[in-house]
Design a protein that fits this description.
The protein contains 3 helices and no strands. The protein is mainly α and 64 residues long. It has one domain.
């Protein structure tokens, strides 16, 4: 599971390039590439969040 969560983190970090483009003001010049980066950012962050919540849930179950 740690390996899978690290792939999600890499996906999230790859999607952060969209934030760089937004700050630079050149986002959506290449529409499909920017949509892809935005989807990587969104899905990577949701996936990492769900992995984190799963780890916390498993730890709480083991503790109780």
């Amino acid at each position: 599971m740690h390996l899978v969560a690290s792939f999600g983190l890499v996906t999230f970090l790859g999607g952060l390039d969209f934030v760089r483009l937004t700050l630079k003001g050149s986002f959506f010049e290449n529409f499909w590439a920017d949509i892809s980066k935005l989807m990587m950012l969104i899905t990577g962050s949701i996936f990492v969040y769900l992995c984190f919540m799963s780890f916390r849930f498993a730890r709480n179950i083991r503790k109780n």
